[in-house]
TrEMBL record:
InterPro entries cross-referenced by the UniProt entry: Glyco_trans_1 (IPR001296), Glyco_trans_4-like_N (IPR028098), Glycosyltransferase_grp1 (IPR050194), Thiol_BshA (IPR023881)
UniProt protein name: N-acetyl-alpha-D-glucosaminyl L-malate synthase BshA
UniProt signal peptide: none
Single GO BP term: bacillithiol biosynthetic process
GO terms of molecular function: glycosyltransferase activity
Superkingdom of this protein's organism: Bacteria
A Pfam family per the record: Glycos_transf_1
Amino acid sequence: MKVGIVCYPTYGGSGVVATELGKSLAKKGHEIHFITYSQPTRLDFFNPNLYYHEVSVKSYPLFQYPPYELALASKMVDVVLNEKLDLLHVHYAVPHASAAYMAQQILKTKGCEIPFITTLHGTDITIVGKDATNEPVVTFSINKSDGVTAVSQDLKNDTLEHFDISVPIEVIPNFIDLERFKKQPKEHFKKAICPNDEKLVVHTSNFRKVKRVDDVLKVFCEVRKVVPSKLLLIGDGPERKKMEDMARDICTEDIRFLGKLEAVEEVLSVSDLFLMTSEKESFGLAALEAMACEVPVISSNAGGLPELNNEGKSGYVCEIGDVDTMVKRAIHILDNKNLSTFKKGALARAKEFDVNNVLPMYESFYQSVLEKH
Ligand code: GMT
């Protein structure tokens, strides 16, 4: 198949999923064309089946907001016609689904019929999409999609609850490349970070309010009173400065902010516990990456997290904001009597999301959409 993939090419989970999906499809022989405003972060190597088409937006003094959606739709038209694509697959509904619909209608006038699939990732529904400023367009473009997928059952339920949806939504969970995300022998890192054999707790996110990073700090500060441990915070975003100030006030010497890291799996390889305390989380890809590196997870019960984190096996699922329970569960997991069992449980759970299991779901979904179109 020749597929055009549209996504946000930056650090966000939806862009990572889209890029990894494209890479895996290309490995299986499909021809994949990324249509984005910059080179996707994880697409920095050569594969004859992978193409990258850059969307550039012209500025003009009249525009306070340059019209990205028009440039994207125009680029989709251009790439579909010139590369003879079979299918468009857009990740994150806003504004990719409406741009795809516009491209599809333009292509029709040129005698080219192409279906498009929209994958819902989370905040395109739970925050940005359902806001009154966007909702009518998001509802319309989901209903006009030839296929719709959501990354968890919870996200599907949320979409049906908040939007007037008249098309079926298929749940296809996110996935993990176990060749990349696996425990690596990086003991020298552990020694450098935890010289006295402390336990290593880790959190990665984009430091937005919905991640409740303050809960991560609160949990860690209680845990370290009982279990000698260190906390690494990976990523960057609007709340980081506030979190650095908070860390300074509470227990700074055991907390380090590392900023954005490309090879996050190297740090995960020496970690003992991952904290994901989010208020909203449609899937929790960062937690899956941790599990694949044999790191148990304490998560909140937001969104799709209970579908990922296997209670009592890969970690524990706690009420959003229930710091006391998170502390108790963390201390339990970090106990040497329990830790290796939880590490095995985390890996076992991650294996269920192996890209090799999930990729065929996308391929057969593509096939069914093409047949219906
Ligand atoms: O977590 C974010 O804020 C980034 C966001 C995105 O769109 O890139 O992530 C969403 O999509 C990921 C991939 O499907 C999911 O793993 C995240 O759970 C989801 N984030 C939220 O729902 C908040």
